[in-house]
Amino acid sequence: MSMHAPTMDPTKMGIGRSIAVLTSGGDAQGMNAAVRATVRVGLYTGAKVFFVHEGYQGLVDGGDHIRPATWESVSMMLQLGGTVIGSARSKDFRTREGRMMAARNLVKLGITNLCVIGGDGSLTGANEFRTEWSGLLADLVKGGKITEEEAKKSSHLNIVGMVGSIDNDFCGTDMTIGTDSALHRIIEVVDAITTTAQRSEVTAAALPQYLALVTALACGADWVFIPEMPPDEGWENHLCRRLADQRARGSRLNVIIVAEGAISKDGKPITSEQIKKLVTDRLGFDTRTTVLGHVQRGGTPSAFDRILGSRMGVEAVMALLEATPETPACVVSLSGNQAIRLPLMECVQVTKDVTAAMAEGRFDDAIKLRGKSFENNWNTYKLLAHINPPDVKSNINVAIMNIGAPCAGMNAAVRSAVRMGIIQGHTMLAVHDGFDGLAHGQIEPINWNSVSGWTGKGGSNLGTKRTLPSKMLEQISLNIAKFNIHALVIIGGFEAYVGGLELVQAREKYEEMCIPMVVIPATVSNNVPGSDFSIGADTALNTITSTCDRIKQSAAGTKRRVFIVETMGGYCGYLATMAGLAAGADAAYIFEDKFNIKDLEVNVEHLIEKMKTTVKRGLILRNENCNANYTTDFIFNLYSEEGKGVFDCRKNVLGHMQQGGTPTPFDRNFGTKMGAKSVLWLTDKLKECYRHGRIFANTPDSACVLGMRKRALTFQALTELKSDTDFEHRIPHTQWWLKIRPIMKILAKYNIKLDTSEHADMEHVIKKRSALGK
């Protein structure tokens, strides 16, 4: 797919080209971030960029609806919900006459590159427009509406799509712009309902399909009805039996999620009202239904959606400028944390296949076609919600502990690990206060109900400490023997990794340590080797981002103010960098990207220039340990002195608020999947290590970190990750997000070189499906 040699100067790629950006269909949070990035990266490459106001209708109407975009025109857009340039559904564009007018408007302005942000209808429309293009131009020339010359200049239209739709129903894309924000809204509502439930009650909530499934995972729902997977015959009895059973076990509250379009096996619709009637009539439980209509479209975009939108915008501009008449129209998307390009037509086709599969009752196919992440979500949900604990015990004891600083999402991981263990027939043990608790015997059984309602709780319910095990190995080994612990789940930050490593190294001396162990990364700093993400980082990122929004807004009335904000993260610059991208910072100082007095001078001058424009605000982020001498106070003093008479400065140190708070949907689901997967893996390992009536695990691969790597959850031996670890600064040597830093700088108008050598080549959805089926 990559036509250009990487030596091409990215700041000259777009010279002589024009790009138009439009948003279409329903609003989705994060569209503005995508528009902002498309505009700024387009300008950075030397291209002209135009806004199309009011979607396809604006394309048809032309005139004032298609306006040149400037750098400043997209300022302060990041934190706004919906779409600033408007998105109308257009009847006119559906007619050939309408599309002819649209083509004429584009030709007259010399625009041959179109970036469309919208749902599947909008993107399908864009592709039709492109296929008809030469025919439309021929007719326009015939009718004397454009000249031969103009038609020749604009002979080919390039199209790139970004999926902005909260239904996430477009196949081939893991996360669409706006999905994460919609989940934030929904979870707020569901949390509010569940915390006010004093008496026993059943809450039935109605939601779009994809959102229904993820919401069910994120709030630990008792049942979810989705169109792709109708319940088995006799589900009414099964449901009532489950609810009665849960009550008998002491659970007061039940949440049932009903997706729009949910049906039974014989194709009859299932509604929340119907379920309310069923539960009230049969069981006499108080039931209320909540319909979450447009609540999910409101509010400010989440940090994830802003970063997603920004990265997609960059990728879209690159895809447009590299396209040739032979390249098919593509959709830019994210898979895991990698930007990818997919042929638009294949995505449309697969989306149609899903509808067909469901209409024909081939529900398993529908789930498969939906893609890997949908299938994983469904499998995790099924395992955690629907299975009654087995009568046969495995006689295995699995201990779970939290290590390091508390973070949001730890409890979700503990809950799903405990429940998955019980489903496997194991006895689960809770260890309080980390390795200290393991050494002092603060260990007790934990059961199915002890963890109910944990998914949405912040912090660490088990209690957590930073102490490492090396000084207590003797007591730890005695307690592993005394409590007969056969496997260990260690959930925590960098200390969890180091502590796990110390236990593995102690295996030579203490036979008790020869048990399978798994480390699940959970820390706001995202600094654990072996994983691209750690549980808790997303929640912290949202806290920092929303705080920065407020700080920026506080200056809306005043002229020329620069804010210097210090973030946590130890020596790891992940939070500062990602928050910088999400909040639109002018600079983010981090330890991994060394800076000196010259860089500081450049940054100050950059802000002085910025104050001459209409944008009178500056935001500087500084990671707490980025430089021992250039402290937050030093940077504040430097900016205050150099900015005298041009801008004034304020500083904020965010502190421990970054570790707290209710976990975001991402952290809840990530925690839930990691917890479940870790115990399934331990169960397999235990079978492998069973020798002569006892468990003996002594190989490096019997102690692993479970991490997210590019696109999949993978297990990597603790010992193998040593070579990639900087133990002094508690960070991995290789960090994927450093490649995103240039995007932040370009979006802040620095004229740096963007490395375009790492191309996202065009992939195929159809092939991708089978390859990922492992």
From TrEMBL:
Amino acids binding beta-D-fructose 2,6-bisphosphate: 466, 523-527, 561, 568-570, 624, 650, 656-659, 730
Primary localisation category: cytoplasm
Catalysed reactions, as listed in the record: beta-D-fructose 6-phosphate + ATP = beta-D-fructose 1,6-bisphosphate + ADP + H(+)
GO CC field: 6-phosphofructokinase complex; membrane
Functional summary from the UniProt entry: Catalyzes the phosphorylation of D-fructose 6-phosphate to fructose 1,6-bisphosphate by ATP, the first committing step of glycolysis.
Activation and inhibition: Allosterically activated by ADP, AMP, or fructose 2,6-bisphosphate, and allosterically inhibited by ATP or citrate.
Bilayer-spanning residue ranges: none
GO molecular function: 6-phosphofructokinase activity; AMP binding; ATP binding; fructose-6-phosphate binding; identical protein binding; metal ion binding; monosaccharide binding
The protein's name: ATP-dependent 6-phosphofructokinase
Domain spans labelled Phosphofructokinase: 19-319, 397-681
Cofactor field: Mg(2+)
Protein source organism: Sphaeramia orbicularis
